[in-house]
């Protein structure tokens, strides 16, 4: 126990030094000066030994000269190399997503035991709820639509997805459904305004509508003679428009799935489509 506490104290003092090095090389110069002054006053930096073996409080400048091989961004490099190593040992929910603030299977302190999926038996679930049926979550009926939020941010300007979606969203992320229905590659995917339907456009010239709750095929929209390049849903959630490489735009009613209009005029393939502001781009 004493050796463990000594080891933790040594790592803590080294961490203070690395944080000071990182801050000193960045824009937070005042924060670096304050930290260096405080850790020296409280003797929190790694201690030095003289020629007789006696310990003395270390100073920041002496440590910089002693550890010249430690770059200012040494702490950042350590953090960046921990994520791939942990990914090979315990895969995360979202492969390739690295964050120091993750939770669940995105947590950097996760272990194989903590990420083990537990399957509840019916008797254990009944005992947990004292015989009552499980209650639906508070947000049942009005779940947050991240897809619509991402699309709105993309229309208004540039953004980073990690700034938009909290890392806690990925805590229990897993595959919901894997659907095979198209005859060829799927080029575009979009949700309706409620998030309860998914629209897919494919190389087989078809637009398919799927239910998000069970993945069931609801309808197939036909009419295009080439691959579907882009789709857009009206703001009233009553129509869907699809652009294709056959130089046309087709509009369907989402209530009856009946065709409403065929828009022609482009001389080449349609690459993007937006409903509401009447903006269509072509080649």
From TrEMBL:
InterPro entries: Bromo_WD_repeat (IPR052060), BRWD/PHIP_N (IPR057452), WD40/YVTN_repeat-like_dom_sf (IPR015943), WD40_repeat_dom_sf (IPR036322), WD40_rpt (IPR001680). WD repeats lie at residues 179-220, 221-252. Keywords: WD repeat. The keyword Ubl conjugation does not apply. Residues 3-86 form the BRWD/PHIP N-terminal domain. It comes from the Eukaryota. Gene3D superfamilies: YVTN repeat-like/Quinoprotein amine dehydrogenase (2.130.10.10). Pfam families: BRWD1_N (PF25437), WD40 (PF00400). SMART domains: WD40. This is BRWD/PHIP N-terminal domain-containing protein. It comes from Ataeniobius toweri.
């Amino acid at each position: 126990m004493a050796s463990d506490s000594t080891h933790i104290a040594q790592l803590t003092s080294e961490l203070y030094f690395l944080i000071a090095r990182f801050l000193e090389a960045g824009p937070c110069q005042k924060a670096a000066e304050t930290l260096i002054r405080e850790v020296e006053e409280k003797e929190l930096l790694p201690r030095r030994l003289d020629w007789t073996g006696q310990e003395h409080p270390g100073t920041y400048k002496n440590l910089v000269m002693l550890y010249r091989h430690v770059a200012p961004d040494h702490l950042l490099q350590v953090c960046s190399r921990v994520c791939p190593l942990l990914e090979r040992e315990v895969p995360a929910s979202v492969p390739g997503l690295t964050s120091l603030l993750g939770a669940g299977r995105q947590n950097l302190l996760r272990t194989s035991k903590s990420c083990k999926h537990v399957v509840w038996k019916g008797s254990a679930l009944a005992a947990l709820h004292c015989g009552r049926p499980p209650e639906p979550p508070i947000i049942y009926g009005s779940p947050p639509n991240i897809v619509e939020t991402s699309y709105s941010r993309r229309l208004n300007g540039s953004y980073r997805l990690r700034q938009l979606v909290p890392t806690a969203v990925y805590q229990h992320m897993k595959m919901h459904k894997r659907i095979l229905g198209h005859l060829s590659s799927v080029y575009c995917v979009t949700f309706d305004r409620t998030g309860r339907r998914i629209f897919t456009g494919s190389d087989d010239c078809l637009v398919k509508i799927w239910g998000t709750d069970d993945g069931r095929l609801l309808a197939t929209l036909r009419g295009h003679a080439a691959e579907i390049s882009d789709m857009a849903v009206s703001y009233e959630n009553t129509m869907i428009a699809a652009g294709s490489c056959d130089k046309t735009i087709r509009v369907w009613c989402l209530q009856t799935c009946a065709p409403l209009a065929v828009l022609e005029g482009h001389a080449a393939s349609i690459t993007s489509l937006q409903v509401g502001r009447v903006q269509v781009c072509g080649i």
